[in-house]
Write a structure and sequence with these properties.
single chain; 121 residues; alpha/beta; Rossmann fold; 5-stranded parallel β-sheet; 5 helices; 49% helix; Sig_transdc_resp-reg_receiver; Chemotaxis protein CheY; ST_Response_Regulator; phosphoprotein
Length: 121
């Protein structure tokens, strides 16, 4: 079972993603509330996949993705953002994100992205 770290400053979003993980047979590895916290949790928990919000306090998701990729070049990160802009998508992918999902999201879209990453590993 693949382990997933959830990074989002909104507790309601973290809760929704936890429910999606349970429904999709993924294991909840832990959660972080900002990008700075994300890097330390990644190092501590070593999840298989990370879901990463872009807009967060302290360190945003783009920088956190760069930091995690610098630590582990094989990290698999799904960016989640309410910002539906090509520029943000480009920045996320350039930072090393594996996939990008726009909020509000359908549960199936997250499961699909998680399964794609799992199958490509």
């Amino acid at each position: 079972m693949k382990r997933v770290l959830i990074v989002d400053d909104a507790s309601v979003v973290r809760l929704l993603i936890k429910k999606v993980l349970k429904a999709g047979n993924f294991e909840f590895a832990g959660e972080a509330i900002n990008g700075k916290d994300a890097l330390s949790k990644y190092k501590e928990l070593r999840p298989d996949i990370v879901t990463m919000d872009i807009t967060m306090p302290e360190t945003d998701g783009i920088q956190a993705t760069k930091d995690i990729i610098a630590f582990d070049e094989n990290a698999k990160i799904i960016m989640l953002s309410g910002i539906d802009q090509k520029e943000m998508l480009w920045k996320a992918m350039k930072a090393g994100a594996t996939s990008y999902i726009v909020k509000p999201f359908e549960n199936d879209r997250i499961l699909s992205a998680l399964n794609e990453i799992t199958e490509s590993k």
